[in-house]
Design brief:
5-stranded mixed sheet; 4-stranded antiparallel sheet; alpha/beta
Length: 351
């Protein structure tokens, strides 16, 4: 009898210990060709039971009493059908009314804005998550359609940090008036001059790679003060939601986004994935006229300048690690973002 009781006691400890462990839940959300949201999930270990899907226009407020989808967890997929192509939707997945995961489509569909994306939903090294709907990144805001203006309104953008040079900002002004625009100029050279050199065969493929790597090293060595100024704007909660904007949203906006994510202890591999994702959201067809009549190498050189390449970001991050040891020391010493301010930023951006 005592042996049996002992066995039951040990079994109950093991069972309770296993059941208390939170499963690993991964969720992705994308919009299909007609604008519906497709949400997919995986759980490890595989869970049984029910998944309830809730939807909202505001990621800080979900109606807990009205799920839009109820399905078996094993289905691994749900679709939210909508005709609304203006207001962005956020979703909460509730697994057996116990485990919750918030998600949205990272990209924001537009007609005239390149590479508009949300930096929400990234998980830090200590299992916290960046808030959805707080910080966005994009290309220039100079060719907005009427619908694009409505979409930005729906995002509630309060602050636009324009990272283009003063010349770019003056020549191609932002066409959105419902936000505070702060220009923190970071020059990347005159693109028309660069393209002319390519057409004249004075800048070839290898030169293009070196040019881009040098550009990213300049971000670290010569323009860190500007990036620090931009990051410190995020310490004021009145500025949110914030949009980082540059020409294509891949270099200046990409590097600023990387610094923000690294300050939040997001793993370097995730930071690189966010950077490379620009290639999925850039419409390079807009530049077809630039490459007409050019030889293959010239076309490849222009492509190198217009896309995100891991080797560009790598050289900058390796420079930081070699000279400062940690990203946090670089942020503190060169960007003047103190350890206290870095902690404040985490309090604001992570949950």
């Amino acid at each position: 009898m005592l042996d049996r009781l002992f066995f039951l006691f040990v079994f109950s400890l093991i069972f309770s210990g296993c059941s208390s462990e939170r499963p690993d839940i991964s969720v992705v959300c994308q919009r299909d060709d007609i604008g519906n949201y497709v949400i997919k999930w995986e759980t490890y270990p595989q869970m049984t039971g029910t998944m309830k899907l809730y939807v909202t226009d505001n990621p800080d407020h979900f109606q807990k009493s009205n799920p839009v989808v109820i399905t078996d967890i094993k289905e691994g997929r749900a679709t939210y059908i909508t005709n609304d192509n203006i207001t962005r939707k956020y979703f909460r997945l509730s697994f057996n009314d116990k485990y919750k995961k918030d998600v949205s489509s990272r990209a924001v569909s537009t007609e005239g804005i390149q590479n508009l994306r949300d930096l929400g939903g990234y998980q830090s090294k200590n299992s916290k998550t960046t808030h959805w709907g707080m910080v966005y990144r994009s290309g220039k805001l100079t060719e907005l359609s009427e619908w694009d203006g409505l979409r930005l309104n729906s995002l509630g953008i309060k602050t636009i940090i324009d990272l283009r040079s003063e010349h770019e900002a003056e020549k191609f002004p932002i066409q959105y008036a419902n936000a505070n625009i702060i220009n923190i100029p970071i020059s990347t050279g005159d693109i028309s001059v660069i393209f002319e050199r390519i057409r004249e065969k004075r800048l070839r493929k290898g030169d293009g790679i070196i040019f881009m790597q040098d550009l990213y090293l300049q971000f670290v060595k010569q323009q860190s003060a500007q990036f620090g100024e931009a990051l410190r704007l995020l310490l004021n909660e009145e500025n949110y939601p914030v949009l980082f904007s540059s020409s294509l949203g891949k270099d200046r906006s990409g590097f600023l986004s990387a610094l923000l994510l690294l300050a939040l202890d997001i793993p370097e591999s995730t930071v690189m994935q966010d950077y490379i994702a620009s290639n999925d959201f850039l419409n390079l067809k807009k530049f077809e006229d630039m490459v007409k009549g050019l030889d293959t190498e010239a076309q490849e050189t222009i492509t190198l300048l217009l896309t995100a390449n891991e080797m560009y970001m790598d050289i900058a991050l390796n420079k930081i690690k070699k000279e400062y040891g940690t990203y946090q020391k670089f942020l503190s010493k060169e960007l003047n973002l103190t350890e206290k301010e870095q902690a404040e930023l985490k309090e604001i951006m992570l949950y």
